């Protein structure tokens, strides 16, 4: 593994190795000195063409716990808005000697483009590209599911995961579908038909329009963020109607099996896709997801950079 | 005086063709007076005519000029090209079309027939002065907002009606705008997985269906640009069966390439309409064979490097096409047995010249006809390379591919624009 661009590129062994490594590295967080010398002298660049404080600081914390030097490059205004081009930005980073580039971009395929160009030679980690993928989010989700429902070990064979919301525009949903399938889980996507991509029938998952029906057997319910601007594009008639049909409120949560957990990649629209009481309930593992994000990103950096000599 | 020795007109028996004073003087055996050029049994075609070319001048001379674009045309065996109107300024006045026409004359590599914009500034709001362009020195007969659809049904109706006065034709870029907002690639299983906004086939088909009905209603002729879907083919088949005066083109890239190339996220493969599925490719090939699609047109769309060396969504739509068109048609249609050379001549010269009302092109290969000719070796193998593109731009989607068939020479009114596969500069003739 040279880059992490998509969860479709991960074999079951790759995915399990990342999760197992993350579990090892998680122990560092419990030490008084939360730092390993592994990536000392290596440079990790966080290249963010899109604002995302939470993902950026998660990667930053992960790189710093491995003693890497971290450069935050906030390229607000990509070539899409007539700023510096992706190519020139990449060449600049290459000239500065970046060993790994963590890229967040609003264009699908941007990370892929960076990794397959000769603009840059270091490892490329996709931290979210347009409406395509967000592989470390899926890995931290899988880690969290395994932690809560599989004693932190092995695969997710047989686990029933329901992912609810704006699948059409969600890179989190895409990365999760491929990864969870690879790890053996049964995924069901739930959304109004307008928010499901054409061709979703060929994805390795079930599709349902009925949340009440889908959650009865769920071990995991993952709510996706729904952006309010979707309403104006006629994807659904109103926020209230969306919330009634596809939001997770307390009565719906009570129909979940006893052991089931509730997840959300954040940031949440409380009252829209998830009720405040649900987000703050004992079933919610949303803050664990944030914590696990650092462990998983440490594992990815470790596996991509740790094997190389500087 | 020149003799093309051992050429096979439309792929038939080898003959010699004598060219004199810009005309085909004689076709026969054993002709050897003057300069004899051995063609080694290559195929002789009437010079190719492209109904859909972007020459980018005026406005984007960094990507292409009339001169560089017509050099590329000559290298591809074309003797006439229709220069699309989406320049800067837009070719929506007699002044701009005359400028483009004159630049073509000065360059001298191929006859340039400017296409006039249907609406002012291509903005789909009000008709450009179509009559002034028709009456200008450029004698415009093809009108198109290509790049944009004339989506207003009433405006389209009026345009179809209006150009009847001077035997014009509206060439429609069939793309329902609301169904394709922000679209990046063919909408299908792959677009969903890649997270690229989809360009559904129905957005093309809905406009074609509407426009063939409009053309029937007002009794006008209509041309459909770059047909790309199986559904469009069915609508065209139906329209033709009703006797509606519609013609249609397919591009070489829609005959050969599919949307799977988008998995590379390399914007070289970003084009409008987008590359479609295998099923669509099979359908447009069959339609071209059957004559439901009348012609091949390149949609040659040069772009500066920086407009393609970027992320997919930021990149420009379009790909080069002139220099590779005949080889791609050879690969996709002739070698599989779907077309013979007579049919290729129809679809790449005779019929496009007729649609564009271009005199002196697409003429029979006979004594007394203008010597606008293409000599093509259908077996010559070559590896396409971006560096070998004659165009000022490099955005060929075929780089690295092996294609069969090379243009050996191109003749414009008896003057070679290409000899031994290389463009001949005017001064050195």
Q: Could you name the key traits of this structure?
A:
heterodimer, A: 310 residues, alpha/beta, Rossmann fold, 2 domains, five-stranded parallel sheet, four-stranded parallel sheet, 9 strands, 15% strand, globular, B: 429 residues, Urease, subunit C, domain 1, TIM Barrel, eight-stranded mixed sheet, 11 helices, 18 strands
Descriptive overview:
The complex is a heterodimer of chains A (310) and B (429). Chain A is α/β, with parallel strands linked by helices and 310 residues long. Chain A has two domains: 7-133 and 290-305, Aspartate/ornithine carbamoyltransferase (Rossmann fold, 3-Layer(aba) Sandwich), CATH 3.40.50; 135-285, 3-Layer(aba) Sandwich (Rossmann fold). Chain A has twelve helices and nine strands. In chain A, helix 6 (171-182) links the parallel strand 5 and strand 6. The longest helix of chain A is centred in the C-terminal third of the chain and has 20 residues, at 286-305. The radius of gyration of chain A is 19 Å and the shape is globular. In chain B, 28% of the residues lie in helices and 23% in strands. Chain B has eleven helices and 18 strands. The longest helix of chain B is centred in the middle third of the chain and has 18 residues, at 201-218. Chain B has helices spanning 66-75, 94-107, 130-135, 153-162, 189-194, 201-218, 230-241, 252-256, 278-290, 325-334, 341-355; strands at 2-9, 15-20, 23-28, 35-46, 48-53, 78-83, 111-114, 142-143, 169-172, 185-186, 198-199, 222-224, 246-250, 295-296, 373-383, 402-412, 415-419, 422-423. Chains A and B meet through helix 4 of A and helix 5 of B.
